Amino acid sequence: MSGIASIDLRPDLAAIAAHVAAGSRVLDIGCGDGDLMGVLEGEKGCDARGLELNPVLVGRCVARGLSVVQGDANSDLTNYPDKAFDYAILSQTLQTASRPDLMLDELLRVGQRAFVSFPNFAHWRTRAALMFGGKMPVTRALPVSWYETDNIHHVTVDDFRDLAKSKSAQIERSWFFANERAIAPMGANWRAEFAVFELSR
Amino acid sequence: MSATSSTYSLPKPLPLDSGQALDNAQIAYETYGELAPDKSNAVLICHALTGDQYVASEHPITGKPGWWERMVGPGKPIDTDRLYVICANVIGSCMGSSGPASVDPDGTPYAMRFPVITVRDMVRGLAALLDGLGIEQLHSVVGGSMGGMQALSLAANWPDRAARVLVIASTARHSAQNIAFHEVGRQAIMADPAWAGGDYYATGASPDNGLAVARMAAHITYLSEEGLTAKFGRRLQDRSSKSFGFDADFQVESYLRYQGSGFTQRFDANSYLYITRAMDYFDIAEEHGGKLADAFAGTSARFCLVSFDTDWLYPTAESRHIVHALNAAGAKVSFVELSAPNGHDSFLLEHDELDRVVRGFVE
Q1: Among the partner residues B320, B337, B363, nearest to A55 by beta-carbon distance
Q2: Which residues pair with A171 in a beta bridge?
Q3: How many whole angstroms from its chain centre is CA A200?
Q4: What is the phi/psi pair of residue B145, to 5°?
Q5: Chain A residues closer than 8 Å to B304 by CB
Q6: What residues does B283 pair with on adjacent strands?
Q7: Which residues, in sequence order, are CB contacts of B27 under 8 Å at separation 6+?
Q8: How far is CA B307 from CA A58, B181, B332, in A?
Q9: pLDDT tens track for A25-82
Q10: Which residues from A are below 8 Å from B166, CB to CB?
């Protein structure tokens, strides 16, 4: 259907795709052009739904046969019933939310479990750019300058762990990536460019 | 393109929401393409208020191409090389299906004795036609505007009848503003002395002036201010200065008059009364205990809703309202608001993004 296989996915999406239970009900928030949804439906027999702000991307998803609603994750998650999904997925969108803490609540309300992925602002490259350059970092993981970026709430691995704890959200599993490859969790707060967390409550 | 024109005579009286029944109902319809042996490729296209069954064939009165010819045909987004397309004139209309201009069993036109119908009654007629064609489940039901209302009504009341439901520029209920505009149109018709209480069929006159005014008022609601400004602005019609009279000085006046008078050539004034009434009565939630989500509980159909950002007749909020209800019902639903300059009418006009969405959904 989608023409995308799990091996073609961005590493954080591939990690999510690999750990979503087959045949589950999934809401992909900020689903983009539906690559992850396509894999979940095509390879794992999931019932996947998407939410995406950009109408052009929504059009592409619909054209691929995916069920995607155009809307704003900041306001529209309230329209989904409690625990309507086995998983709510938020990939590289948390840091663009107007209130990431409230969005995390909504994820764990509509989904039994949540996957959240984000770029880690405490990666050593970001730290170095700020420390030695004295300017907001523009790195491989954060390629857009401060005045254009959608990332309005930069977050680190340790920040996210704190947020999960304060929300009584259980971190079930986590995965970390640098240079497009999975890395060990040791020292993730400075070594990881991207992080993926699986949460429950 | 090559079409087959047919008329189906309902074998039984058609029960109506009013409690009445319509005897000897006829439904005129066009078909395009070939029905697969397993009847799995039938697409029902539902037309809008003043539309008809000639979705992709020349209109017999105006000689104009079908009203959605850019969407329906060989290789088009609704591809008749693959799909069997049915488009039927709704009951209450005037292009061959039973309506107020049809003759009753006594041989005289019904006029205002035609029973008041609802959108659900129209769809009940369409479902009877599908029964007659032996089509149990449609591949898709597709409609814009009032056509979208029919598609929603089919999904809500005959939930197994369509596998895919595509609703464009439509709504689940008529708003006070929608009803208000329709009432202006109806009053214009009924204020025309030639309307004669609806009994004008034998008089040789018809309430063309009233019907034209109704069409002019409605036509404004189909366009956007931006579109009108771009097309006409304040430009004058074939003159260099204002006439200080009441001719059509402005291009927009001339355009509306042309739209109004052209419409009277092809549409029956009483049909306009009946169909606008049906639309005003439309409220799917009300039919299902007041909660829209309940109308779609347990549906297995896939839905796609499309709205246009300049449509103020059935604005995006109405489509979102339906999407939220479908989400609450756990239905598979897609929704996109497309950007288009031409208001409600955008669904009939050139729009590449709309084509892609329709093609992808009706796969």
Answers
A1: B337
A2: A199
A3: 15
A4: 60, -125
A5: 62
A6: B173
A7: B7, B8, B10, B88, B89, B91, B97, B98, B125, B126, B128, B129
A8: 13, 20, 17
A9: 999 999 999 999 999 999 999 999 999 999 999 999 998 889 999 999 999 999 899 9
A10: none
B86 with B44: CB under 8 angstroms? yes
What is the mean predicted confidence (pLDDT) over B290-301?
95
User: What is the reported pLDDT for B363?
Assistant: 84
Q: Report yes or no for ipTM above 0.90.
A: no
- Joined together, the tokens standing for residue B323 give 């999407």
The DSSP code sequence of A130-186 is IIII-S----SSS-S-TTT-S--S---HHHHHHHHHHTT-EEEEEEEEETTEEE-ST
Q: Could you identify the residue written with the tokens 């030695």?
A: A132
Suggest the residue from A53, A58, A66 to mutate for an interface test with chain B (most B CBs closer than 10 A). A58
> Which residues in chain A touch residue B330, judged by CB atoms under 8 angstroms apart?
81, 84
Determine the Cα–Cα distance for residues B298 and B300; give it in Å rounded to an integer: 6
Report which DSSP code applies to B5.
E
- What rounded mean pLDDT belongs to chain B? 97
- Percentage of residues in chain B with pLDDT exceeding 90? 98
**Cα(B329)–Cα(B281) distance, rounded to whole angstroms?**
24
C-beta of residue B335 within 8 angstroms of C-beta of residue B304: yes
Q: Which of B174, B182, B344, B351 is catalytic?
A: B344
In this structure, how many other beta carbons lie within 10 angstroms of the beta carbon of residue B193?
10
For chain B, positions 247-286, list CB contacts with chain A under 8 A. Answer: none
Helix axes B251-266, B208-222, angle to 10 degrees: 120
Q: What is the pLDDT of residue B105?
A: 85
Choose among B324, B334, B359: nearest Cβ to A68: B334
Query: Which among A7, A14, A15, A41 is positioned nearest to A27, based on CA atoms?
Result: A41
Torsion sign (Cα): A175, A177, A182, A185 = negative
pLDDT of residue B1: 65
Q: How far apart are CA B325 and CA B327, in angstroms?
A: 5
Sign of CA dihedral B233, B237, B239, B241: negative
CA distance B78 to A78: 35
Predicted TM-score (pTM) of this structure: 0.93
CB-based contact A103:A97 (threshold 8 Å)? yes
**Which tokens sit at B267?**
């549409």
| pLDDT given at position A2 | 45
The residues pairing with B88 across neighbouring beta strands, listed in sequence order, are: B29
Q: Does residue B339 sit at the A interface (CB-CB below 8 Å)?
A: yes
Distance to chain A for B162, nearest Cα, Å? 16
> Which amino acid is residue B78, in one-letter code?
I
* Contact yes or no for B119/B283 (Cβ under 8 A): no
Distance (Å, rounded) from C-alpha B299 to C-alpha B313?
A: 28
